Amino acid sequence: MLKFNIQKSFKGQDKHSKDLHFKGEVDLSGVCTIFGDSGAGKTTLLRCLIGLESCTGNITFQGQQWLGSNGNNKIHKLAVEDRNIGVVFQEPRLFPHLNVQQNLELAVRKAKNSTFTIHHLAEKLGFSDLLSHQTTQLSGGQKQRIAIARALLTNPALLVMDEPLSSLDVTSKRLLLPFLKQVSEQIPILYITHSEHELFYLSKQMLLVNDGQVEAIGEPQKLFLDSHLSLIKFAQQGLILTVLVKEYDQQEALIKGCLDGQTLYVSAEQAPTTSQIQVKINSRDVIVALQPIEGSSLLNCLSAQIVDYSQDNQKAVVLTLKVQSQCIYAYITLRSFNKLKLSVGSYVYAHVKTMSIIN
Ligand SMILES: Nc1ncnc2c1ncn2[C@@H]1O[C@H](COP(=O)(O)OP(=O)(O)OP(=O)(O)O)[C@@H](O)[C@H]1O
User: For the ABC transporter domain, which residue ranges apply (predicted)?
Assistant: First the structure.
């Protein structure tokens, strides 16, 4: 469990800055993603938690006090190096005067009984042939793989990552995302990202940061559907759903899947390698009708119920359509909404024009 109630002020440094106040309790297991708008305070929260940024208040991790009062009204702050955290930033920050092996050996020396070895991680992350290379000769993706290995070799109780994949190519992301998911079964990960794809692929829970505060903590699917949260403006553009793979038709490059018991066809150049896929359905790609549309090129028609709706200032309505356990949004005009006499509880047919696979 990670518990925190901390304040941070940048006012001395920047008169325009607001005070930030973060409060929350997270039962850390798997990946917990820190998500929010640019400037919301994600990096500041993370840096305060791990002790790289000074702040006031209380932090405890798995019963160990990292920050707080020690009873005599004196501030207790556990040194960063005693918190047993592995840290990976957007920039790999390797020692340029050492080769890959030497960079990693520094971490091994720091660790107490590491469960990982250089050999094992080099194989898993595909850099066995780079061990004798100077780090200055490596690409960004190679450096980041080594930075992740270095963090793991310190045998951390918590791995903290600030947008670790944001500047990497697709191939590196394809290698690292499943790896991190696997690692998170052993070591909890606190992970900042702007990518919805990474968020939904990795996280069991998310910590939503908004305007210098923790706005909500919970499962991504639930928070993305909560119309009271700031996330809604972003979520209403489209939601991510889990689809079970039934079969793949190579000739038509089409996956036949199952979404909450209903058939869904998804275009894919290759057969999926997993038994379930995640697809993003944009709200503007959903056509709502009172009957199934016949004789059209539309492949997907889901029967759904309207469970909520909101009107935006563009004279459009965003409908929340529940398929069974999962929801999609549909963005329609106010005129269509009125014409179809829609309301909460109405049953409709949601025709999905297109969707993208995100894992
Ligand atoms: N060193 C600093 N001096 C003054 N203000 C700062 C400093 N660092 C952060 N801030 C302010 O604190 C707020 C939160 O910044 P932070 O970098 O934590 O946001 P973020 O959510 O991580 O943003 P991004 O996604 O763009 O990285 C911003 O208003 C920012 O201007």
Answer: 1-236
